[in-house]
Design brief:
By secondary structure, this protein is mainly alpha-helical. The chain is built from 31 helices and four strands. 24% of the residues are buried. Residues 541-695 form the CCAAT-binding factor domain.
């Protein structure tokens, strides 16, 4: 008997089929019409099984069909519904549709097997299916646990609630769950290592999947950052160090790629209706800033483990030190890569104090990063922020490492002129006051003037002159902060010669920016420092270099006789040699001598100049080839500028005022003109070919062309450039030594004038008793 379908159900099926095919559209329910409440029968169970249109299935089934289904279930015609029971009266069985005997037997056997299976079995059999070759049976599948099964409606709801990180990989719990080792019996080291490698490989795959998805579409999968940052809190004993390293490096590379080069500003949009794309971009930027802030906080927490406070006697493990060092490296990389992004000032405040850390490696990491920022900063904004942090740190800490001040030497302040800026400000103030006295503007004229200023400002912005003015202003602030730091160190008069040496080196480099009003005070302070016993040779050179730098520039107008600085420099000139500890101070010495002898050549006497040249020739005999080239290059330049120094090439000593006395500490009275540059004879046979050329060039009278002249690339080089160009610190000889060619060796045959003597010599060589005779010519 074939069950008849109700007319309404048949119509619904046809309508649903047409909706799926796209022939008709699904009608929207009317909002204004309220459906009448459906009366429910009291004390009757309601079956909540709805069709596609929301109608009750039981209402659509005829009474005859319902009686047939109940009778079939009760009489066990459908074994799969055995657990469903209905209390109905016995009625005569209805005839069913005939089925093939094979299909009925097959279904009954399979249903019986399902009933016999145990509830705890791990495998279950699948239904057979027909193929061209016949039936395929005995298919099994891993049994799904009951708690893993979801209803279709629940599955749709959970799918809608899944976030982007579940699309790219498993959740954090699933990714790191396997890190817990649950072994019941004894475990070997090999098993532990294999399990550990397995867990780490899973984490790598999980992190790589999330990172790759984030880089492909940052705006859509920004939520992946939340998963990656949350994984940094993993505390599993055997994997947390490696996992945290992987996460720090991965998140670092992701942020270096997706962060913009500008600062994201928080603009209030209350009451403003935004476009869909604008709102999406705003939410993305807010999420990016939130996760970036969380990542920086975690890095700061890891890095501050290395910062030991007073009274803290805890010993940090190697794992904590390793993670802390990696965190500092990550912070420095973010600051170098995106110096103008948000939180750059916060990173600077966290990183700069580590230049005073006990570990040299950490100090070098931060120092190199800060140097890179100073070199690449075009706006001087982040440079000013870092200098403010250094200035504040130097106020509260008297003992600092040299790295804290060495980074300042990278700055370029050649464009800064404090005096010019001061004079310009005074002129502008006077001009404004003069205009205010003469012109009495009305309100309309004042408004017009204000509008003109705004227009001029916009024009400057279009011409990029506004940014140039901002940069000049920042440079002035940078210069003031630098000298504030240096002067504070000089006032404290610390006995730390290393930090004082770096301070003096910075003063010597930036002396042209110092205000004239402070020149005399600085010179007096440096003069006192030269009399200190604890001051090293390098620090003395920087003191003298600073004084000569001041006097060579704007300080020429100062009425000051630097004779004591000349005498000090001349006295300690020969303390420098190739075998001493201060052999690395040769470039500093060459720079100081260039300031004293070349830039101030018109301010010193010929006797003093000749005395310095004679001692420089003596010094070049005890230095390495780069130091010798620096000294000889300095002698060459002085002799080209001052022809009175040619007296040192005259070998006749009868024309002088007396004998040369090298032990006198004042070059004015050592009578160097009575001597000559005999050292050039030895330097002409120097092992370095360029030193030999320079010695012959000076001995020939420093000719510009002809015999004894130098090649163009060496003749135009300054002493400082020669000292740097031929430096052997990188173990590279300049010019390179030619390779020895492999060829037949040339043997020279001895020729004897007396044949009898030749025979006697050969007999002696062939004899068993060989005797060697040494002939002393003396």
């Amino acid at each position: 008997m074939k069950a008849k379908l109700a007319k309404s159900k048949r119509n619904n099926q046809k309508k649903n089929k047409l909706i799926k095919q796209g022939v008709i559209k699904k009608a929207k329910p009317r909002k204004d019409v309220k459906a009448a409440p459906v009366p429910q029968k009291p004390n009757l169970p309601v079956v909540e099984d709805e069709s596609d249109e929301g109608e009750d299935l039981l209402d659509m089934v005829d009474d005859d069909d319902m009686d047939f289904l109940k009778t079939a279930i009760t009489n066990r015609s459908y074994n799969i519904y055995n657990k469903v029971k209905f209390n109905v009266s016995e009625e005569p069985k209805l005839k069913r549709r005939k089925k093939s005997q094979d299909d009925e037997t097959l279904e009954n056997d399979f249903e019986q097997q399902l009933e016999e299976q145990e509830s705890d079995t791990e495998l279950k059999e699948l239904l057979p299916f027909k193929t061209k070759t016949g039936l395929v049976r005995n298919r099994v599948l891993k049994k799904i646990q009951a708690e893993e099964i979801e209803e279709p409606d629940q599955a749709e709801e959970s799918k809608n609630q899944e976030t982007a990180e579940n699309e790219d990989g498993d959740n954090i719990e699933n990714g790191l769950e396997t890190s817990e080792l649950n072994f019941t019996g004894p475990v070997s080291v090999v098993q532990l290592m294999a399990k550990r490698d397995e867990v780490i490989n899973k984490v790598k795959l999980h992190v790589g999947t999330l990172s790759a998805g984030l880089l492909e579409s940052p705006e859509e999968k920004i939520i992946n950052l939340r998963t990656l940052i949350a994984m940094m809190d993993e505390e599993t004993a055997h994997t947390y160090v490696t996992v945290r390293k992987i996460l720090i490096v991965s998140i670092l590379e992701v942020f270096k790629d997706i962060l913009p080069s500008y600062e994201i500003k928080n603009v209030s949009t209350d009451g403003v209706r935004l476009k869909k794309d604008t709102l999406k971009l705003k939410k993305y930027e807010e999420s990016l800033l939130l996760y970036y802030k969380k990542f920086l906080q975690k890095l700061e927490k890891c890095a501050f483990v290395l910062f030991k406070k007073k009274g803290d006697t805890r010993r940090r493990s190697e794992e904590e030190i390793t993670i802390g060092t990696l965190a500092i490296q990550a912070l420095c990389d973010l600051l170098v890569t995106h110096p103008y992004f948000n939180f750059s000032q916060n990173i600077a405040q966290a990183v700069v104090p580590f230049m005073n850390n006990r570990s040299k490696d950490i100090r070098e990491i931060v120092k190199n990063a800060v140097k890179t920022i100073f070199k690449e900063d075009k706006k001087e904004e982040i440079t000013l922020k870092i200098l403010r942090v250094i200035n504040h740190y130097s106020k509260n800490h008297s003992n600092m490492h040299t790295e804290m001040l060495e980074v300042l030497l990278v700055l370029n302040l050649n464009e800064v002129n404090l005096e010019k800026d001061k004079e310009q400000n005074i002129k502008e103030k006077k001009l404004k006051a003069h205009k205010a006295r003469i012109l009495q503007l009305s309100k309309k004229e004042k408004k017009r003037k204000k509008k003109l200023k705004e227009v001029e400002k916009e024009l400057l912005e279009t011409k990029a002159e506004e940014s140039q003015q901002v940069r000049q202003k920042n440079l002035l602030e940078v210069t003031k902060l630098i000298f504030n730091i240096y002067f504070r160190i000089l006032k404290t008069n610390t006995s730390n010669s290393k930090i004082l040496g770096v301070c003096l080196e910075g003063l010597a480099k930036f002396a042209h920016c110092i205000n004239i009003e402070f020149y005399m005070d600085i010179v007096n302070v440096l003069n006192k420092l030269l009399n200190e016993d604890w001051l090293g040779y390098r620090e003395q050179l920087f003191c003298i270099h600073t004084v000569f730098s001041i006097l060579s520039g704007q300080g020429e107008a100062i009425n000051l006789d630097p004779i004591r600085f000349y005498n000090n420099l001349y006295k300690d000139l020969l303390t420098l040699n190739a075998a001493s500890k201060n052999s690395k101070d040769t470039p500093v010495l060459i720079n100081t001598l260039c300031e004293a002898l070349i830039k101030r050549r018109k301010k010193i006497t010929n006797k003093r100049t000749i005395g310095f040249l004679k001692r420089l020739a003596q010094l070049s005999m005890q230095l390495t080839h780069e130091g010798s080239l620096g000294c000889l290059g300095l002698i060459k330049h002085v002799m080209q500028l001052n022809r009175s120094a040619d007296v040192l090439l005259d070998l006749d000593s009868s024309t002088g005022e007396g004998k040369y006395q090298a032990e006198i500490e004042d070059p004015e009275y050592c009578n160097a003109a009575s001597s000559a540059l005999y050292e050039l004879i030895h330097l002409a046979r120097h092992y370095h070919p360029i030193v030999s050329k320079f010695a012959r060039h000076i001995a020939s009278g420093v000719p510009s062309s002809g015999d004894g002249s130098l090649p163009g690339e060496y003749g135009k080089s300054s002493p400082e450039e020669l000292c740097v160009e031929f430096d052997m610190s990188e173990m590279a000889f300049n010019p390179p030594v030619p390779l020895v060619k492999n060829g037949p060796k040339k043997t020279s045959k001895l020729a004897f004038a007396d044949s009898s003597f030749e025979t006697e010599c050969r007999q002696v060589l062939r004899s068993k008793k060989r005797k060697f005779f040494w002939i002393d010519d003396a």
